[in-house]
Amino acid sequence: MSDKPLIVLVGAKETIVRIVKSVGVEVLLIDLPTEIDPAAIRLADKALAIDIVSIKFDDLFKMIASVSPRKPAGFIAVSDPWLLIVSHLNKAFGCLGASPETTLAMLNKDLMRKILDEIGIPSVPWQHVQKESDLVGFMTKYPGPIIIKPVDGRGSRNIYKVNSNIEAAKELWAKLVKLEETGWLAEVFLEGPEFSVETVTENGRHYVITVTDKHKNNNFVEIGHRIPSQLAEDLKKQIAESACAVLTSLKLNFGPAHTEVILTKQGPRVVETHNRVGGDRIGRLCEMVYGCHPIAWMAAKLANISPPKIYEKPDGGATIAFFTPTPGKVKLISGLEETKNIEGVEEIILSVKKGSVVKEVLSSNDRSGHVIAKGNNTQVSDAICSKAIKNIQIITE
Ligand SMILES: Nc1ncnc2c1ncn2[C@@H]1O[C@H](COP(=O)(O)OP(=O)(O)OP(=O)(O)O)[C@@H](O)[C@H]1O
Ligand SMILES: [Mg+2]
What we know:
Elements: E1 6-10, H1 14-21, E2 26-31, H2 38-43, E3 46-49, H3 57-67, E4 74-77, H4 80-92, H5 100-107, H6 109-119, E5 126-129, H7 132-141, E6 145-150, E7 160-163, H8 166-176, E8 184-188, E9 194-202, E10 205-216, E11 222-227, H9 233-249, E12 255-264, E13 267-274, H10 282-290, H11 294-302, E14 317-322, E15 328-334, H12 336-340, E16 345-350, E17 357-358, E18 369-375, H13 378-391, E19 393-396
Parallel strand pairs: 1-2, 1-4, 2-3
Antiparallel strand pairs: 5-8, 6-7, 6-8, 9-10, 9-12, 10-11, 11-14, 12-13, 14-18, 15-17, 15-19, 16-18
Helix pairs in contact: 1-11, 4-5, 5-6, 7-8
């Protein structure tokens, strides 16, 4: 064992292990036996494949002690299912981290809205929906489009827009009650373009890395992001401030956050926020343009090492775009090799191959892969990305 500080990564894949190791720490990877990534195990210094969901903390402490004599400098999770447990672990070990209360308020969309209303942060009219009459009552009070979504959803699954039609809403509700969700939330539909705000927080102070432009399909699934946003600076400032106000209201004291915001005519309104790096490789885009991956920042801070510098001004632009081929069975994929050589193309990941079945994109999991591009600015990175996406033909039948 080296004398490097120990960071425990929960539920992470190879890419994140690599980023954390790059700051000069030792990594202990913990994941479910059914989920643990073999490539991540190879890269990590130690790995424990255990059922972290049901294990007692005392037993977990003993297991961690059995693989490392050192007390962990901190625990990090990069995906929603692990955020709460990691917040409890950081608290139990006396490490820096968002509190369990903050984490829970970010994971539960009802709770977040309730707290924002109590504090008086501009939010959106909302209602917890337990039965049909709750939905009808909400739609009667707020005639106009609404969104119905799971209280603790992720990956944009089961997000429905209803356009003032109460009969259609009743029909939809009859279907929703059959789905395996823990609860439902109705919100007035926020009209406007959507962004995300990438931040890191230390001692309760939020540092805005960037505002990100977001592209969605008709089912509210993200199909592209670019950094930095092309919006006017004053509007970006408003969006960033609204995100930081929400982070303060939810008492985030430490770590990266990813906050989604819609810019309405009445001003920015937060859709949701999480105390983790943005998914969809947004951390990588931050690193490409601002010099530091938020996870590297976090790992370094936990380990009391100087983190990579976060540039104040962007160094170019970066874009990620997702493949959304026509649903069907993949017959042919072409253009991959020559597209890899296009200048500015940084990463191509295809999650389908010949014979795979492509579904309609109803959640993030239905996308077929992505391209990441870097350019001197976001117009250039956008253009490279579009060219790459067009070049790679995923033909379905
Ligand atoms: N009140 C609303 N008004 C308008 N659009 C909304 C509203 N709530 C959600 N949406 C749309 O649905 C998308 C998904 O909603 P939300 O972020 O709450 O769900 P999620 O499943 O946690 O998303 P993800 O994990 O993909 O970020 C939002 O990014 C936004 O485009
Ligand atoms: Mg979201």
